[in-house]
Amino acid sequence: MPLRPIPLLSLGLLPLTLLLPACRSTPPLPPEPAPQAVACPEGLPAGSRCLGGRDSAGAHILIALPPGWTAGRGDLVMHAHGGPLLGEPRAERVAEDLHRWSITVRAGYAWAGSSFAQGGVQVLAAADDTERLRRLFVEHVGPPRRTLLHGQSWGASVAARLAERQPSAYDGVLLTSGVLGGGSKSYDFRLDLRVVYQSLCGNHPRPDEPAYPLWMGQPAGSTMKQSDLAARARECLGLGLPAAQRSAEQSARLKTLLSVIRIPERSVQGHLNWATFHFADIARRIGEQPVFGNQGVRYSGSPDDAALNAGVLRYRADPDARQRFAADTDPTGRIAAPVLTVHARQDPVAFPELSGEFGRTMARAGQAEHLVQVYTDHDEHSYLADPVYVALLEALQAWVDRGQKPDPAAVAARCEAARARFPGECRMLPDWTPPPLASRVPARD
After folding, report:
1. Which of 27, 59, 132, 365 is surrounded by the most beta carbons within 10 Å?
2. pLDDT tens digits, 290-336
3. Spatial separation of the C-alpha atoms in residues 127 and 328, rounded to whole Å
4. By the 8 A CB rule, do 229 and 222 touch?
5. How far is CA 78 from CA 75, 91, 163, 273, 424, in A?
């Protein structure tokens, strides 16, 4: 006798569809407010259109469309700015960046940049802000044919982390003058700067001021401003004064600092600012634990290295704090899209060795084939030259569209060709690669 199926309910069982939990889909993201027409900064081609406003998180945003740009046919460059800035976001920062990078629009690309919704050293949050702007662009302007992601300086780490997290959103990645060693490696030399400066100058803090660990940047509640710090550096090093107006003692201290830390004079004040105000921001976010340390560092280049090493303050980084900071700031190298980087050999702010470190990060992640790195003989950080960026964008676009992976020599050739349309010096170094980061920043425990 054939068996008859027994209804599940007769056994006190519920149908399978009722036993399974309901599928939980990710709630849709809220719509972004439509940007409004605004005046374009100087330097854009005639007929360009600009849109601006604030996104749903409060970041100031700015979009520029070159003449004739249409959705579905034109390409978009998403821009992540350097810095980062501290304090509240400013609309002026985005306008300044569009003015600086007007070459993007002059070369025919749409451009979009965010001020980021928050100040401070928050890489993943800035990446989220950039992605939010991309979605806003698609929603209110229209989908581009290709989307290229550009990160400059500190923004290069923002772009790298974003490309890792949103692999389907970005067709190619351009990282220029990038702080790409990860925060856990890129800023160690700034602690070195603080301890050597304090050994030489003893005025940051002064003897009559409360002492604090220098990795903290400055103590909570400090009212010091950048102008105050500049006055102390001028007092001790003669920084900002013509060489002829410095005392012999100031000149000697400055020479020692530059020799030991291996940075140019023009970047000392900027790095001191970072090692003060940004270090304070990092310490506050990480929970007042040392991210940076200098145990085991052997400083050299002073008139008396033994005395210097015996006298500098020493700190040991907290492993958990350093790991938490690395989780936000350090690229993993897991980027599947084509990536181009460019770095000046004499960059006074971000060492080219940081780009070399990023190359090793990509290789460890098994993504070396997706990376091409280019170096130039410029001595600037914030901007190199118009034809350099045109060549990089065109090389990246050819790689994305036609699979034509460039090499540094091919990018150099493109740069020379671009000079007919966009004057400027290419100064490419196709055969140069930087030494390891440890050759510039001493190893530490």
Report:
1. 59
2. 999 999 999 999 999 999 999 999 999 999 999 999 999 999 999 99
3. 10
4. no
5. 10, 17, 11, 28, 24
The single-letter code of the amino acid at 17 is: T
* pLDDT (tens digit per residue) in 132-184: 999 999 999 999 999 999 999 999 999 999 999 999 999 999 999 999 999 98
Alpha-helical runs (H) found in 312-385: 319-329, 353-364
- Rounded CA separation 306/300 (Å): 9
Q: What is the pLDDT of residues 346-357, one digit of tens each?
A: 999 999 999 999
Separation of alpha carbons 255 and 246, rounded Å: 12
pTM of the predicted protein model? 0.92
Q: Measured between alpha carbons, how far is 203 from 279 in angstroms, rounded to an integer?
A: 18
Rounded Cα distance, 242 and 273, in Å? 21
The label of the residue with tokens 């069982």 reads 13
ω before 430 within 30° of 0 (cis)? no
Residue whose tokens read 């530490």? 444
- Amino acid residing at 192: D
∠ CA(122), CA(444), CA(344), 5° rounding? Answer: 60
